[in-house]
Design goal:
single chain, 447 residues, alpha/beta, Rubrerythrin, domain 2, Rossmann fold, Ribosomal Protein S5, domain 2, 9-stranded mixed β-sheet, 7-stranded mixed β-sheet, 13 helices, globular
Length: 447
């Protein structure tokens, strides 16, 4: 006879215990242990199972391409690696109000022209989804909309093979009947994701799952959720305006270096053809303003870096950054204080990346340093140029990848000169600098 036992999982940290207790031994959270599914012993499970056999599979690129569901929305297809792979499990996450449901409704409508698509909403009624679809004019194709909060019903729909793509909004709002925990708990998320994933693989049906995020910005739920899916997409940006960036944090079927840039309009999230021109359209050539040639994935982009340096009114100077790492800013300020003649110990320093874009490219270092030097001395860049380059602790300007792409994008926007690190081969339009001190002395002049 099979021996069964109960297990209890902590909703806060995922700790598993064989017995219930009022307080989690791992994270010390009270009343967080909830009962999970019954688990059989290893011997009983092995006795019921059957041995598996492998089969030889020949690699075929053409087969892989034919199994992709293309939306013909260029930015989305590029981020996914050419489209949605049949039978894949895709997770998309982002801040509330960033546009996840809007983007997925547009994606569903675009794919519904060639494939069978079902949009399952667990957070809104079918009427509410239809209102958004009418606003976005996304009802031209054969898109079907349903509402359900049952993971069992959704799994049965996936297994029926009636659809090529099913979108589930969201994983935190659905629950399994066999799990007694509350909806949105770790037990419900893990078991629901497991059921949906298995059904998708067996039926070769692609699914897209919407995930919530925590107040820190990470995907809500256990980390096993991200490990169990094939693709993890992140939609970021300023939800009140500016550009939205779609990145692939994990992608088993393509690169994670691509990025899609969108802008919210009355017709939904629309791809931006020339984001550099839009970001620099209202720029004023003044002190503290530097144009940075950066990359979003493999896509070159020109953004404005603004700096404001002001005498501190308190004993401890303030450092603040929008769209740039505050720890990196502190490191660059310390380097400037040590390696140049700038006196910043008693100055408040503020950095802003215009357009609501978060820049994590190391090549932004030189632009930030020039912006700080420009604002501190009331100088401006003497030439119309874009800037890029990584800065070391000794003040040296280090090389960065994809220089040709940065130069080409800068030339397209009218910047015939770029200030950056020196390279072994001569590059047209690149004015090289050895260190940050020489860059400040050579290119900053009176406004």
């Amino acid at each position: 006879m099979s021996k069964k036992f109960n297990r209890y999982v902590c909703n806060n940290c995922g700790y598993v215990s064989s017995a219930w207790s009022g307080r989690c031994p791992n994270c010390n959270e009270w009343n967080s242990l909830v009962e999970d599914l019954l688990v059989t012993t290893l011997e009983a499970t092995a006795a019921k199972g059957k041995p598996i056999t492998g089969q030889s599979v020949k690699a075929s690129l053409s087969t892989d391409q034919n199994q992709r569901l293309k939306s013909h929305i260029t930015d989305i297809d590029e981020v996914l690696g050419g489209g949605i792979v049949a039978g894949s499990v895709n997770l998309i996450a982002g801040q509330p109000g960033i546009g996840k449901s809007t983007l997925l409704l547009q994606l569903a409508d675009a794919i519904a022209g060639s494939f069978r698509v079902l949009y399952v909403s667990a957070e809104e009624s079918a009427h509410q989804v239809s209102l958004r679809a009418h606003r976005l004019k996304s009802l031209g194709n054969k898109l079907q909309i349903a509402t359900s909060t049952s993971a069992d019903d959704i799994t049965a729909t996936i297994a029926s093979k009636q659809f090529d793509l099913i979108i589930i909004d969201s994983i935190q709002a659905i629950s399994c009947q066999a799990v007694s925990a509350a909806t949105g708990s770790i037990s419900q998320i893990v078991n629901a994701a497991s059921m949906l994933s298995q059904a998708a693989k067996l039926s070769n049906t692609a699914i897209i799952i919407v995930g919530h995020v925590t107040k820190e910005g990470s995907i809500a739920g256990p980390k096993v959720l991200e490990h169990s899916v094939d693709v993890v997409l992140e939609l970021s940006g300023d939800r009140y305006g500016g550009f939205k960036l779609l990145r692939a944090v994990k992608n088993r079927f393509g690169s994670t270096s691509e990025a899609g840039i969108f802008e919210m309009s009355e017709a939904g999230l629309m791809p931006v053809d020339n984001p550099s021109a839009a970001l620099l359209a209202e720029r004023r050539d003044s002190d503290g303003s530097i144009v940075l040639a950066t990359l979003e994935g493999t896509r070159p982009l020109l953004v404005e870096v603004q700096a404001l340096v002001n005498k501190s009114s308190y004993g401890y100077p303030k450092r603040a950054a929008s769209g740039f790492s505050i720890s990196r800013l502190n490191l660059l300020v310390a380097m400037l204080e040590k390696r140049t003649k700038l006196s910043l110990a008693d100055q408040d320093i503020y950095i802003n990346i215009v357009g609501g874009i978060d820049v994590s490219d190391p090549a932004a270092d030189l632009a930030v340093c020039l912006a700080i030097g420009s604002a501190a001395k009331g100088l401006k860049l003497g030439v119309k140029a874009a800037v890029f380059g990584e800065i070391g602790l000794a003040g040296e300007v280090r090389r960065v990848p994809f220089v040709e792409k940065r130069l080409k994008e800068a030339k397209k926007l009218g910047f015939n000169i770029c200030i950056g690190p020196s390279y072994a081969k001569a590059m047209t339009g690149l004015k090289s600098v050895e260190d940050v001190r020489s860059a400040l002395n050579q290119y900053l002049e009176k406004a």
